[in-house]
C-alpha cells in the first residue's frame, strides 16, 4: 500500500490527540484531516521536517511498546548542493503527548567519515479549525489569527468567536535557530558516528515559567510508561498459544487505554479518533460492558461520569429530558457557540437503558455496593424516564423523535439519516421504536431487578421482573415478521413495522428478550450468506433495497455490532454461529495494519485474494471496535460472574465454553472479583474445552455447564 494511503498513526492523552504520517509529521497535502487536536480544535495543521531542503525517506515507522509513543526511522534521500550521499545520515524521531502538548526527540547520527553540517528546516502551521469544520461543516465567520516569533519561539494565536484564546507555541531546545512566521531553520554539526539530539515542544498552554524542552520530553515519556504499567497492573491479562491472536488482544487493550481519559469519576473511553474524541454515552457504555470481565474500572468511570451529567430538565434544543443519559459532550468553538448542538447533547434513545444494564452487570462483576448505592438517584431517574417515555407512546414502546435543530434524525446506534427505512426503501417517519431499544429496555428492567434484589428490596425486584415479562410478550407480537424470519428493524410513527433484515435483531438476543424459536431463526438469518460476508455480519442484508456495502449503516460491517450479536448468540447456545463471527473478525484483524479493527469496514463479500475493504473515513482506533475482542471472548467461553444466593460467594460461570481452531490454550490471569481473585486456564481438545483453576482466593467458586 502506498505510504500516503496508509492509515495515520494515532496518539492521545486527555483532551489532546495527534494523527501523524509515517514520518511522524503532519502534511495536509497527503492527509488533509491529520493534525494535532486539543479540546476540539486543530492546534497543529502542518509539521514537516526537511534535511538539505528534502523530505527524508522512511525506513520504518511504528508505535513502540510504550503506550502513546510513536517512533520513525528516517534517512537523507537525494544528493543536492552540499548534501552527503543518500543513506549517510540516520534520524530516529520519537513523538509523545502530554494532556497539553506534543514533544518530539530528533536523534541524528552521521555515518560519514568526517564532520558534516546538516541544514534542518521545520515547517509549521496552526489553523485552529474546529473538528466539525474538518468534517465538512461550513462557517460564515471565524475568529482572528495572529502570528509572532522571537529568536527561539514561533507562536500562533487564535481569538475564537466564543471568547476563548487558543495558542500553539513551537520551541526548539538547546540549539541556535532562525525563526520565521511559518518555519524554523537550524544548522547542526554532526561528528562521525556520533548522535546529536534535538528536542521540539509544541505547547498548547504556554506557561510563563519555561521548563527545559529536554526535561519535558523525558517527563512525558515517563508518564506514558506509567500509564501502560498501570493498565497492566489493574486489568486481567489474556494470553493464548496463538501469537497473532495475542497481538490482536494486546493491540485492542492498548487502544482502549489509549482512548481512555482520566476524568473526575475515573477512566472514560472516548469514542474514537478523529471524529469522536470525547465522551459519548452509548459508546462508553458498550465499550465498558465489553471490557467488564477484564477491566471493570472503565464501567465505574463511565457510570460515574454519566450519572453526573444526566439531564435534569426539559430542553428541546439539546433533546434533553429529566433522567436521560448523555449522548455526547464537546469542547470546541462551534459547540460552545451553539453552531452545533453537541456541547452537551442528549439525542440518544438507547444510552439510558444501557446505563442501567451496565450498572447491573457492574454490580455482579465487582460487588461494589457502596458505589451502586451512591448511583441510586441516577438509576431511579433513568428508569423513570424509560417508563414515562413508554407511557407517552400509544403502543407502550420506547420511541424517539428529534426535537433539537441540527440534532440527530435517528437516535439509535444507527444514527445516519437513511438508516431506518421500510422494505421498499422509504425512510421511516414519525416517532421511531427500534427493535434493539426495546431489548435494552427489557434488559434494563432485569438489571434493575438484580440491583433491587441485591439490596434486599424484593417487592421492587418482582415488579421490575413482571414489567420485563410483559414487555417481552408485547415485543414479540409487535416486532416479529414471519415473512423475513426475524424481528422488524423498527416500528414507524404509525406503528407499521420496518420489515427489513438487519443486524439490529441480533441485539435482541444479547439481552434475552427473544424467544428460543425466534432466536434460532434470527441466528439463521444473521449467518446466511446474504448477511454474513465472511468477515462479519453486515448491518443490512444484501437482499434489502437500500443495501450498499459502502454505506455507513446499510451494508457495512461494524465490529462492536458483531460482538454484541455473538454475545447474544452464545446466550441462546448458538456457539458455532458465535465462533464464526469471532473467526471472521480475527481474520479481519490479521489482515489490517497493527491488528487494529476500525470503527467499520465495507460489506463486500470476502474473497480469497482480497483483504477487507476499508471504509474511507472510519475512526481508527475506535473504542467499541477495540473492545469487541473481549466481548467475543466472553461469548465463546460462556464466561460470566454470579453470586450464590445462599452463601453470597462469588461464582465464575462457564456455559458451554469453546475455543476456535488454532487456539488450544487460553489463560486469564489476575481476574479480580471484588476482594477475590482467580487465575484460569481453558484448554481445547478434539471434542471438548476444559477449564482449569490455576489459583484462586478462598471466596470464589467456579461452575461449568456443558
Provide the CATH top-level class of the largest domain: Mainly Alpha
Average of per-residue pLDDT values: 94
Give the overall form: globular
Tally of alpha and pi helices: 16
Q: What profile does the largest beta sheet have? A: 8 strands, antiparallel
**How many discrete structural domains?**
3
Strand order of the largest sheet: 6-7-8-9-16-13-12-11
Low-confidence stretches: none
Derived from helix and strand composition plus strand pairing, the structural class reads alpha+beta
The span between the termini is 46 Å
Percent helix among the residues? 25-40%
Compact summary:
By secondary structure, the chain is of the alpha+beta class. The chain is built from 16 helices and 31 strands. It folds into 3 domains: 225 residues, Glycoside hydrolase, family 65, N-terminal domain (Beta-galactosidase, Chain A, domain 5, Distorted Sandwich), CATH 2.70.98; 403 residues, Glycosyltransferase; 64 residues, Maltose phosphorylase, domain 3 (Sandwich), CATH 2.60.420.
Task: Name a few traits of the molecule.
single chain, 706 residues, alpha+beta, Beta-galactosidase, Chain A, domain 5, Glycosyltransferase, Maltose phosphorylase, domain 3, 8-stranded antiparallel β-sheet, 4-stranded antiparallel β-sheet, 31 strands
